# Entry
Amino acid sequence: MRNGNEESKYKIEFLGEKFSRENKFYKVIILGRFGVGKTTIIGKLMNKEIDKEYAPTLSIDTKNIQIKVNDKIIQIQIWDCCGNDEFALNTPNLFKNASIAILVYAMNDKKSYNALENWYNMLKQYSIDSIIFLIGNKSDLEKEREIIIEDVEDFKNKYDDIKIFFETSALNGSNIDKLLENIAITIYEKDKTEENQLDNALKKTITISKEDLTKKKGKKKKFC
# Structure
């Protein structure tokens, strides 16, 4: 995926950790209880070596990634939040203007799964338009699994605006490329839809203006 996917209608190229003020950036937030591997996922997304001794994120950290989808550069700013839901609740700017929100739990940690509802509710309180992904991390710890797929299906059915779900391992990289690909394609398609809507609105405005002009020209002037 890093070098493009010719079998798909999308050609995707990872451009690395870059930021340009000339390009619009899209905010992606990663939410979940401490210890689920949010920071490690971000490190893997950015093609960095994984440090098993990552210190916990104490507030908010941001990283920038550029990805080329077909001929369009997608500039993503990823917000990594500490796993303290009280901190998040008192930091509403974390959620605002997020294009994508990624809810993360660890499949070997029932508490992290049970915390998803709080994170979901906070997200919907402050950012109702975010596209939601659900990620079950630490799939490399299958023998320690506490969350079965049926549990996750129940959560998805309860909150039917969750668009994408799959399991990952930030440790061995399983499905991390898939996650990055889905982020890029989702933003690409969202942006294309918004551009089409704007284009159609402009065309409609121009059509109405022409009709008004034609009507005015058709009216005869009255003289006293």
Q: What stands out?
A: The first helix runs from residue 38 to 45. Residues 12-218 form a domain with the Rossmann fold fold (CATH 3.40.50.300). The chain has six helices and seven strands.
